[in-house]
Amino acid sequence: MHKHHRALGLATAPTGSRGAADIARLRPVEPVTLLRPHAARRAARFFVEKFPGRSLYAVKANPSPDLLRILWEAGLTHYDVASIGEIRLVHETLPEAALCFMHPVKAEEAIAEAYFEHGVRTFSLDTHEELDKIVRATASDGVAATDLNLLVRIRVSSEHAKLSLASKFGADPRDVSTLLMAARQAADALGICFHVGSQAMTPAAYAEAMSRVRAAIVEAAVTVDIVDVGGGFPSSYPGMEPPPLETYFAVIHETFESLPISYSAELWCEPGRALCAEYASVLVRVEKRRGDELYINDGAYGALFDAAHIGWRYPVRLVRGEESHVRPMSFSFYGPTCDDLDRMAGPFELPGDVGAGDYIEVGMLGAYGCAMRTQFNGFGVVDSATVEDEPMASLYGAATAPARSNVVTL
């Protein structure tokens, strides 16, 4: 990686207020991930200062050690981890971080390693079988652990989210009451958690889910110490411009305050996308144009997995030497592999004269884009460069994409 950096001059190019245009001027052959630490830092401070509770970063969204350190330095001390691999990574990168194992289905060996080797005390579950597994795996010499935070995940609707997370996890409504009572007996702190789905477009998603929490508490008649509203906090994409995050926080706070819970109960959330989407974009090169189709050097098996497989639209802009005065038109993309599935339908709005040799910045790829890369077909070698310009869209006070040109000149 470092050798490749020197070849392109990315590591040694002057920083200053360096942006996408400065990287494109170097004419990179491979895609370049543009990193914006200041954007991730700003997002983290926003949640730390404004969310009315504790924020856990959902590591799956982007497990970059550099990003983890940025979020830690910005004040995020708790991390939502979904696997033993993520636990090992975060524990090695941030030894003092509090890790919460929030995947509802875990290997017993993973639970034991998490508890005894990495200090994990918080686990989620959605069945009696998982509860029994956690109790067994954390016992020492046959004596049950007395320091567990156990969060029962309940099933809620994903109708207000762009990506559903309603079908795979969540306790059967018929089992919630007995599961809460059983978890109460095994837990030092008992919690309820849920996930409204990814990219929730209205705060109503959380209000409706909190009504489910209230019903579960009333029916089980247990004392609840933690309410975790999960993730789902949105970012801004073309055609998906959500209301301000403060409105989500206000609804969550109001509904939390009205719950019949312990006087000292804690409110948690698990933002992933909202903390890291603005952290990275990808600079790609057009290798060929065929009508309204552009062949680019990254795609479905790289950072654009979601653009290909679920039709996610990302902001794009042309980055080249001269201003374009040609009317924008809609394009689709093909990635570099030999697979017909390596296609991003878009539409992506770019000047009508874009062609081979031009560079395009695809924005808002810090969430999931960087995490989903593969080496399929021999592609996937990606350089990175830190830039200081603003992300192409932001929910944290910066200029947003619609107000900016879709062309950046070198």
Round the Cα radius of gyration to an integer and report it: 23 Å
Helix count from the secondary structure assignment = 12
CATH superfamily of the largest domain: Alanine racemase
Average pLDDT for all residues = 89
- The first-to-last residue Cα distance is 25 Å
Q: Can you give the helix content as a percent range?
A: 25-40%
Total count of domains: 2
Oligomer type: single chain
Basic shape: elongated
Instruction: Estimate what percentage of residues fall within beta strands.
Output: 15-25%
Please write the CATH class name of the largest domain. Alpha Beta
> Residue ranges: pLDDT <50 for 5 or more in a row?
1-9, 11-15, 399-404
Question: Remind me, CATH topology of the largest domain?
Answer: TIM Barrel
The number of distinct β-strands equals 19
Structural class: alpha/beta
Describe the sheet with the most strands.
Answer: 9 strands, mixed
CATH architectural designation of the largest domain: Alpha-Beta Barrel
Describe this structure in words.
The protein is 29% helix and 22% strand. With 410 residues, it is an alpha/beta fold. The protein has two domains: 165 residues, Lyase, Ornithine Decarboxylase, Chain A, domain 1, CATH 2.40.37.10; 239 residues, TIM Barrel (Alpha-Beta Barrel). 50% of the residues are buried. The protein has twelve helices and 19 strands. Helix 3 crosses helix 4 and helix 6 packs across helix 7. Strand 4, helix 6 and strand 5 form a beta-alpha-beta unit.
